[in-house]
Amino acid sequence: MRGVGLAELGVVTFAGFVLFTLVTLPIEVDASRRARTVLAQSRIFAPDELEGIGRVLRAAAATYVAAALTAIMQLLYFAARVAGARPPAPVICLVRSLLSIAAHAS
């Protein structure tokens, strides 16, 4: 019987991170929505400034969504590698693209 190796332990640990990311995702997106509402009600900013603030806060929420998608894809990639499968080239390209997008978004 084979014991759990370091790679398998890494996949399980990363799966915990992905779960945490997915659980906190709605909270982060809602925080951006609530911030827009609070800023609009505070009347600190002019109406034309609120449009730009809204775009920035939507972009901030989008970075959390991108990070969650990237984490899921990375988990699938790592799990496939540990299982001995070589992911098809399109999956590798997709993971690299998501990592690149996430790196530029943050």
Please give the largest β-sheet. Answer: none
Enumerate the spans where pLDDT stays under 50 for 5 or more consecutive residues. none
Instruction: Work out the helix count.
Output: 3
How many structural domains in the coordinates? 1
Protein model, in words:
The structure is a single chain. The protein is mostly helical. It has one domain. The chain has three helices and no strands.
Topology:
Layout: H1 6-42, H2 47-82, H3 89-105
Salient structural properties:
mainly alpha, elongated
Short description:
By secondary structure, the chain is mainly alpha-helical.
